[in-house]
Specification:
This protein has 9 helices and 5 strands. The protein is α+β, with helices and mostly antiparallel strands and 211 residues long. The chain folds into 3 domains: 40 residues, no CATH class; 76 residues, Ubiquitin-like (UB roll) (Roll); 66 residues, no CATH class. It has a 5-stranded mixed sheet with strand order 2-1-5-3-4. It is globular and about 50 Å long.
Length: 211
C-alpha cells in the first residue's frame, strides 16, 4: 500500500482502475465509497434501531501518558479523552485533532468530538524541534509525492501572499490535504496549513465581493 490510499479517489484508482474527474465525485464514475465505520453505524441504525452515539477514537503520540483506543460518546471533549488516557506528559506541546499527516492543532481542549473524529495526536517538544521552517529549496519533492498531481509549493506560497486568484489557477480546491507534501519537504514549510488557509480566505474574499 502507498499513502494516501484511504482517500476515495486514490482508492478507486488503485482497486478499480477508475479515475474520478478533477472536482468530481465517485458517483460520476458509477461508484459509491463508504468506510467501515459508516457501514457499521448504518447497520446498527437500520437493523437494531440504535442511533449513533459513540465513536472509536485513537489517542496517541509522544505527549500522551497511555495511548489508547477509546469507545467515546459523541460530545465528549478532547480533554475528556486525554484524561482517560492518563493525561499529558511533562513535555507535551501540541494536541492535534486527527493524525500527524492530516490533523490540525486544537486551540482548546474543551472542544467536543463529533461523529467524524477518528483520532487525537499529542505531539511532544521533541516532535516540534524537527519542524522548524527554512526557505524553499525548489527541490520538487512535494510535486513528486502529490497524489493529485498538483504543485503544492505554488499553491501554498500564493496563499501565503494573499494571491488567492493565483492559488486557484494552480487548482487550490483540488488539494485533498493529505499532508504528503509537508511530510517530505526538507524546508519544513507548513504547506498543508497554508493551503487550508488559502481555501478559507478565498471563500471569505468571495463572500465579501458578492456582498
Amino acid at each position: 500500500t502507498k499513502y494516501p490510499q484511504g482517500s476515495e479517489k486514490q482508492l478507486l484508482q488503485a482497486v478499480l482502475g477508475k479515475e474520478v474527474p478533477l472536482r468530481g465525485l465517485p458517483m460520476d464514475v458509477g461508484v459509491l465509497v463508504m468506510n467501515v465505520n459508516t457501514a457499521a453505524s448504518l447497520a446498527r441504525a437500520v437493523l437494531r434501531n440504535k442511533p449513533l452515539t459513540h465513536r472509536i477514537v485513537t489517542v496517541a503520540g509522544h505527549g500522551i501518558v497511555q495511548p489508547k483506543n477509546l469507545l467515546a460518546p459523541i460530545g465528549a471533549s478532547y480533554g475528556d479523552l486525554i484524561e482517560a488516557c492518563g493525561g499529558l506528559t511533562a513535555d507535551a506541546a501540541r494536541v492535534l485533532a486527527g493524525g500527524p499527516m492530516m490533523g490540525f492543532s486544537l486551540p482548546d481542549l474543551d472542544i467536543p468530538i463529533t461523529k467524524g473524529t477518528g483520532g487525537v495526536t499529542v505531539l511532544a517538544e521533541r516532535d516540534l524541534r524537527a519542524m522548524r521552517e527554512t526557505a524553499c529549496l525548489r527541490c520538487g519533492r512535494c510535486v513528486d509525492v502529490c497524489p493529485m498531481n498538483l504543485a503544492p509549493t505554488r499553491i501554498a506560497l500564493a496563499s501565503r501572499a494573499g494571491d488567492y486568484g493565483l492559488a486557484h489557477e494552480w487548482n487550490l480546491t483540488a488539494c485533498m490535504e493529505c499532508g504528503s507534501c509537508a511530510y517530505v519537504c526538507p524546508a519544513r514549510i507548513p504547506l498543508v496549513q497554508l493551503i487550508r488557509m488559502g481555501k478559507v480566505m478565498s471563500k471569505k474574499e468571495a463572500v465579501r465581493k458578492a456582498a
